[in-house]
Task: structure prediction
Amino acid sequence: MVTTVRDGTVAEANDLNLPADLSVAGKVVLPGLVNGHDHLRSLLPFTRRSDTSALADLIEAGRLAGTAATAEDYRALTALASARQVLSGIVSAVDHVYPLHDEAMLRAVAEGHAEAGLRGQIAYGVSSAIDLDRAAAAADDVVPAERLYLAPVSLRQTSVADYRASVAAAERTGLRLYTHIAETLDEVERCQAEHGLRPIELLHGIGFLRPGTVLVHCVQVNDREIELLAENSVSVVYCPSNHLKLAKGFAPVLAMRDAGVRVCLGIDGMTDLFTEMRQAVYAQGSAAGRPGALTTESAWRMGTTDGSAAIGDNDPGLITVAADDVRLAPLVDPVQALVHRGSGPQVRDVLVDGELVVRDGALVKADLAELTERAWKATRGIAERTGKEVPADWNWQQN
Result:
């Protein structure tokens, strides 16, 4: 018999329909993990300079880097990040991509996902009418329409007029909507000063809230806004590590879930979904002043089945971990162990759309060293083109 975990429960089953050449003896079989929000192109290298950077500073640095990036940079950086995703057990991810100033960039992103075997959904960052036209043209050409969102970046970077235009475009094309919203107190205060409404109220008023819409963050929302999210069947992506790092506050996840809002998890530039699961448990417990306020099983569902439902992904795939991994042993309760002790490197196999993309901890479809070299070159090139001083030893041959 094979030990499996589904919906937070443990069972034994032999009906997994696995590839004939995949052995799961001595392993725990799990549903694939779902990352509801990320920016996989990683235009900014991860350095200690970001430790005290405000969100506005990071946004501006990312904007400058984006203007210097090429389509090949997008492909290289996306491919390496997609490799990190699948190696850590993520089967599906929503990649919020902007700026897209070159028509080849969107195709480059989709190709980067495919190189590693990630089932990527693309949230096309909207900042002008031309973005809406390009996104509509890409549906079922560059990426299947059911995996493409019209995604105004945020109220900080996209006008309300472009939000309205996105709603109209969604009605014409049937594409879903996606955005960052209610991320900081400053955003809420500015929205109230300019429009007389809080961010979620503003989106509701222009018809942005609808079944299939995905909102990222929702840290600063009140009870009435939570009611609007529930009434309109909107899904929310909670990114606990990102919120903690940037001191955004504690999203009212418990209240949203109690109201019937589907909440899933996003990595948003951090580590992996196992980390986000336990950060969700710990952060929500701290916010409530009560350990276990968000249960381990709830966090597990947020990273798996709730994530699949939130982004409309009907094929969760599967992953395996070794049952005798010393970091998990003794494996009395697999869900508890994985949420609180799990990490990406423990994943052994990943099956996406019936195809093995990770076998025994290694990529199947791509060479990791080659992906890393290309990403190094892209990062260095972007830095040089934006006038940054690049250390002489900053290269991909480092040991």
About this structure: The chain is about 40% helix and 20% strand. The CA atoms of residues 100 and 106 lie 7 Å apart. The longest strand covers residues 90-97.
